[in-house]
Amino acid sequence: MENLKEFDNREKIIVVGGGFAGLSFARLLFKNKHYQVTLVDKNNYNYFTPLLYQVATSFLDPSSISYPFRKMFRDKGVRFRMAELLRVDTENKTIQLSDGALSYDHLVFAAGTKTNFFGNEGIREKAISIKGIDDALYMRNELMKTMEKAVIETDPAERKRLLTIVVAGGGPTGVEIAGMLAEMKRYILGKDYPELKGAGGSIHIVDGTSVLLAPMSDKTHKEAYQALTELDVKIKLNTRVNSYDGHIVKLSDGGEIETKTLIWAAGVTSHTFEGIPETSLGAGNRMVTNAYNQVTGLDNVWAIGDISIQETDAAYPKGHPQLAQPAIQQGKALAKNFLAIAKGKPMEPFKYFDRGDMAIIGRNTAVADLLKHKLHFSGFLGLFSWLFIHLISLVNYNNKIKTLYSWLVAYTTRDQALRMIFRSENRGT
């Protein structure tokens, strides 16, 4: 690696968050001579969010979709700090972390989102959400423990409640989780738990809109509905989950579903930080930025990805969708603008290129709307497109090989060998 010590007077950039946006930003500044980049994240690894549900349903190992930052940044001239951001002092250009303070010349927020429970504390306490690796492993453990409870349950009604799962949210995460759980129920449950054959239980998906995968095309809405129906998933649209007490899901139409498992995939909201004024926040607590991703009302503070809302793109007046592609593209665009500034060149306004949306439903069905919905794929072509795009998007060849192998095993055998319960509370016993 080229020695960068002679450039110690470089301006300091702190990036908060190592997801799609933060990582794509940092990677474009590897070994650069103009800026000293430090990435701050509460985890010491990056993970591939779109495949979290496959970890949660025991089809992928966590190491297949995650990779340590320090190994990723080795000999790249980017520093890493594992800490949580507590507050920002924009006047003195410092941030307070859970383990100390850092000063900056430029502060880039790429902290993403968290689960939005819409103020419903009962749901927050009782439901299972899935926003990170820890959530995915918790969900995996809880699903497996619930199955073990069902095996020894003698009351048929209680056993049925244990085997009933409600998924709140009909977006990509909800649809993909429901499809995967339905596949497990159909092809794996009877093999692993022969005691549960014919015990009842069902998979439900509930969404407040009139279609599944709402941002996608009409063809996709219909195909997703049909694919889930064929997997025996019960679909309830134009309906919201109002409450959950750990036993009964109460719906906005007055209906009720008895279940011991509610998986919450119904919405997200952005992280907020002390020191960032409310006047700089927009819908969903996203930081309002100009066309160059500078946060409104603040100097030397920038925001990219899900935490940013940029209303200057005429094609997206309400901000870009909170998806991987806008985050990746904004991260790269901002890094290029920083390099342009260092060379005395003007910045370029961000322009999002919509490559499309896709989702996989069960083992054989995938839907893809590409190039602003001009191209629609389903069936084998949709499945191949989904597999290819997700595989090449993983950050490391090691991840790609592990994931491809796991998919091949799962596809050919309709099974995986990852259904173990590991509990940290058992340490030392």
Secondary structure layout:
Blueprint: E1 11-16, H1 20-28, E2 35-41, E3 45-47, H2 52-56, E4 66-68, H3 69-72, E5 78-82, E6 85-89, E7 94-97, E8 100-103, E9 106-109, E10 113-115, H4 121-126, E11 128-129, H5 133-152, H6 156-162, E12 165-168, H7 172-187, H8 189-192, E13 203-206, H9 218-230, E14 233-236, E15 241-244, E16 248-251, E17 256-258, E18 261-264, E19 268-270, E20 287-289, E21 301-303, E22 308-310, H10 324-342, E23 356-361, E24 365-370, E25 375-377, H11 379-393, H12 397-413
Parallel strand pairs: 1-2, 1-9, 2-5, 9-21, 11-18, 12-13, 12-18, 13-14, 20-22
Antiparallel strand pairs: 3-4, 6-7, 7-8, 10-19, 15-16, 16-17, 23-24, 24-25
Helix pairs in contact: 1-10, 5-6
User: What sort of overall outline do the alpha carbons produce when their principal axes are compared?
Assistant: globular
How many helices in DSSP terms?
Answer: 12
Q: Low-confidence runs (pLDDT<50, min 5 residues)? A: none
Radius of gyration: 23 Å
